[in-house]
TrEMBL record:
Organism, as annotated: Eragrostis curvula (weeping love grass)
Protein name per Swiss-Prot or TrEMBL: Hydrophobic protein OSR8
Keywords: Membrane, Signal, Transmembrane, Transmembrane helix
Location in or out of the cell: Membrane
Cellular component terms per the entry's GO annotation: membrane
Length: 76
């Protein structure tokens, strides 16, 4: 993990403590299931939203559902 990656992760964690959906949005995007769960938990209570956002930022890989063939261009 490089310095830039560490700084980005710290910024995401800071945003997730101040406004939990914002930190999740920076890490995973605005139209993901993680983001909407964070919004719902934050509406239901601030502390559950913060705990979920920190968990998602630290342990869930944003590229876990990515197709490995997506990076290749097939020319016929």
């Amino acid at each position: 993990m490089g310095l830039c990656s560490c700084c980005c992760r710290c910024l995401e964690l800071l945003c997730s403590v101040l406004l939990p959906p914002l930190g999740v949005c920076l890490r995973h995007g605005c139209c993901t299931m993680e983001f909407w769960i964070s919004v719902l938990l934050t509406i239901l209570g601030y502390l559950p939203g913060v705990l979920y956002a920190v968990y998602v930022i630290l342990s869930v890989d944003p590229h876990r559902n990515r197709d490995p063939d997506e990076d290749y261009v097939y020319v016929a």
